[in-house]
Amino acid sequence: MDNSAFFLSFFKEPGLTSAEALDRLKRLLRIKKAGHCGTLDPMAAGLLVVAVNRATKLMRFVTDARKRYVGEFELGKESPSNDIESPMTVTNPEADAFAVDWERIVAIFSGRIRQIPPDYSAVRIGGVRSYAKARRGEKVDLPPKEVEIYHLMLTPEERTRVAFVVECSKGTYIRSLVRDIGAVAGTGAVLVNLTREAVGPFTIENAVRLGEIRSAPEKVARATMSVADFLRTFPWITVGDTIYWRLRNGADIRSLGLNLLEGPNAVFHAGEPAFLIEKDGTAYRYAAYLGND
Asked: Per-domain residue ranges for the chain?
């Protein structure tokens, strides 16, 4: 594959780590420089957005985007990993999903909330991953963090099985959300399955699977988003040669009189992506240079 820069919507199968899935994808596409924009747990499936070549400069802006997940959890059980991947303990054999006030729970877990990451997470404690300490039976004490739940839907399917849809901010741990919902319900809960459906403008409907990389080039094409198309999901402007070269030489952005909005702004020159600039109040920052030279 050539050195073009793009994003790829990739479907990660359950059972693979995100790093393993990325390595296999890189071999199949014969690309050297690529990174995934947000890890999925091995048990989880779904959308893994992959940045290729110069698109890796923009990975943070994908990772920071809003995400949508669907899945199921089981009431009446708990586990060290908050899912079915570690030994489970029955905490409430009488748990009944149809007896829980789900509207109340949705209200509690909507908007800005604080959650403690799972012990079995990749958070570093003194340079050591939390999951490594947890697997050794060591005590893990992780600080709470604030995240935002934009939309939450909880639907009982069976006596102990509940389906969910959640749209959330970056950094949200779905296993922690399930654990905390189980605590408020008074039953305990463990995550059974999880699929990521969307990350910002990228959706699972366009995602290509490993087995389709060689056999279905049309699906690879559909899964691809150019850097230019991604940048046009932000506010964007076009500049002429004079402003381009002043930006290229690191001019004070405030002195250029550009009509920029709060947050990331894309700058195009001669029809091609040139810069991503961030505005924070009266402060401006060069976030990325995207030219070829």
From this structure: 6-65+200-226, 67-199, 234-289
